[in-house]
Amino acid sequence: MKILVVDDNVDVIKSLQDVLEDYEIIGCSSIGEAKEILSQENEIEVAIIDIMLGEENGLDLLSYIKSSLSNIECIMISGYSNIEKAVLSIKMGAYDFIEKPISYQKIKVVLNNAIEHKKYKELFSKELKKYEIIGNSKATKKINELIEKASKLDFPVLIYGESGVGKEHIANLIHLKSKRGKNEMVKLNCAAIPESLFESEFFGYEKGAFTGAVTQKKGKIELAHNSTIFLDEIGELPLSQQAKLLRVLEDKNIIRVGGNKPIPVDFRLITATNKDLQNLVKEQKFREDLFYRIGVIIIEVPPLRERREDIPLLTTHFLKQVSIENNIEKSIDKDALDIISQMDFKGNIRELKNLILRLFGLSEGKIITKNDLEYILNPCKQIATDSIFEKTLPLSEAKKLLEKTYILTQLRLNNNNISKTAISLNVLPNNLIRRMKELDIKVSQ
Ligand SMILES: Nc1ncnc2c1ncn2[C@@H]1O[C@H](COP(=O)(O)OP(=O)(O)OP(=O)(O)O)[C@@H](O)[C@H]1O
Ligand SMILES: [Mg+2]
Fold first, then answer.
1. 133, 253, 283, 361: which one has the fewest Cβ atoms less than 10 Å from its Cβ?
2. Ligand 1: lining residues by beta carbon, under 6 Å
3. 154 and 66 both lie in a single domain
4. Which pLDDT score, from 0 to 100, does residue 75 have?
């Protein structure tokens, strides 16, 4: 790891080189030299800068780095008489400062912390990028505005939308951008827990609370202390549990099953559902008071077919993502994109993403075409129309061709993996191989 040390006292550079032996220290004594080094080296992680650089001011270099190379952390060295400038440097974005005479113990600790901080910042921006909301439709812009608002406030958020529209994606982004974003968000899918287990999942239990409770266990709400809890499919929460959740939201404390001591909890609630909660309220399946409590900020995410303008951007986004992951670059041509933009996507963005992954995997060339798309959308028809339905054949020939077409299709869907294809077709791999030989099917592995 490379560290830049800028100090007009060569002895300081030398002694830092001795002390920080685990790092590659690049030293120089003026701002001009520092800028020169920075323009050539792109692996410098941290810069240690003396504030009094002879005639020059180290703060000038700090401001240059922060405005142009903001991912380098800066640690300032300050003499006693410069303490005000050192304090100012923190405001300007320096990570920390150390006073002269330099304590080598301290510089090691500060440097380690700066590197940790940098790593954390990089991870954090990667996470933020992962949950970026792609799309330029009016609806998506509105969603982005609501996300901005919701992440600045600490109110409960309710996210509505069909399956696959991005409810969890949005919840992740709100949490990350919020003041609680440094802690991990706790997730619980209300549809996946049997009613009898809700209480112990939500509130945890004390040792001996019931048979099988051999140790104490914290519940999800307690685990979300100082963080966010995401309750997915909140519409599935049984009425008995709705009352308990409401009580927690009001009292801000929980009691573990088998316990009697209220434990204070400070969490932010985000819920999601694809059910119309207002209808459930009318049908008396969802408590009205809970509905108002959880829906302080409501985000409605329309289905993809009602915001088709987002489809091209989403398509290229997913294609770029999978290209990077696989180190193979593929793009899509306009005809194919036009067809995709007209599709209905009952499974919304999730279905679109899966389609793009399959297209990426199955298309032969670097550019995904209409043919690739048609092949995936209707593989049997694609092969069969060419060879069977356009001419009259003896039945035995037609049967063979259909069988060949079907096996070929299954092979392509399974990436030419014979064992997987055999499982899909419910035959033994050896029998499949024999039949492939008989039908003259050759595949590249
Ligand atoms: N606007 C978006 N930009 C980029 N990716 C998105 C966007 N919205 C959703 N996704 C991606 O689409 C997929 C489905 O999203 P998600 O799981 O959040 O949907 P959901 O609404 O929670 O679905 P379900 O109701 O089935 O749980 C995920 O891979 C998610 O990362
Ligand atoms: Mg979901």
1. 283
2. 133-135, 161, 163-169, 274, 349-350, 353
3. no
4. 96
| Structural domain of 246 | 138-302
310-326 helix and 348-362 helix, angle to the nearest 10 degrees: 50
Q: For atom 6 of ligand 1, which residue has the closest CA?
A: 166
Q: Which ligand is nearest to the CA of 347?
A: 1
The stretches of 295-345 forming alpha helices (DSSP H) are 310-326, 334-342
Same domain? For 262 and 162 the reply is: yes
Residue 327 has pLDDT above 70, yes or no: yes
pLDDT band at 350 (very low <50, low <70, confident <90, very high): very high
358: its two tokens: 């399959």
Q: Decide if pLDDT at 388 tops 70.
A: no
Average pLDDT, the chain: 92
204, part of any domain: yes
Q: Which of 159, 107, 102, 167 is nearest to 133 (CA)?
A: 167
Domain count, the chain: 4
Measured in whole angstroms, how far is the alpha carbon of residue 68 from the centre of its chain? 27
Q: Is residue 226 within a helix (H) or strand (E), and if so which, with residue range? A: none
Q: pLDDT per residue over 179-218, tens digit each? A: 999 999 999 999 999 988 999 999 999 998 888 889 999 9
Instruction: Tell whether 288 and 213 lie within a shared domain.
Output: yes
Q: What pLDDT does 326 receive?
A: 94
Distance 273 CA to ligand 2 centre (A): 8
H or E element, residue 263: strand 263-264
In a domain? residue 383: no
Burial of 253 (0-12, 13-18, 19+ CB in 10 A): middle
CATH classification of the domain holding 398: 1.10.10.60
Mean pLDDT of the region 404-417: 86
Judge whether 152 lies within some domain. yes
Q: Which residue has the higher pLDDT, 74 or 401?
A: 74
pLDDT tens, position by position, 214-255:
999 999 999 999 999 999 999 999 999 999 999 999 999 999
| Residues 296, 343 share a domain | no
382 belongs to a structural domain: no
**Which has the closest alpha carbon to 354: 297, 315, 387?**
315
User: Are both 318 and 373 inside the same structural domain?
Assistant: yes
For ligand 1, pick from 170, 349, 356 the residue to mutate: most ligand atoms within 8 Å of CB: 349
Query: Which pTM does this prediction carry?
Result: 0.79
Cα dihedral value 245, 249, 252, 257, nearest 10: 0
